[in-house]
Amino acid sequence: MSALTATVTPPKKRHRNLAQGVVESIGASIREGVLKPGEKLPTESVIMELHGVSRTVVREAISHLQAAGLVETRHGIGTFVLEPPAPPLLISADTIRTIGDVLAILELRISLETEAAWLAAARRTDVQVREMGEALQRIIQGGSVEADVQFHLLIAQATGNRYFVDILTHLGTTIIPRARVNSAQLAHDDPAVYLERVNREHEDIYNAILRQDAEGARTAMRTHLSNSRERLRKAQEETATSA
Question: The domain 93-242 is classified under which CATH number: 1.20.120.530, 3.40.50.2300, 3.50.50.60, 1.10.150.530?
Answer without folding.
Answer: 1.20.120.530
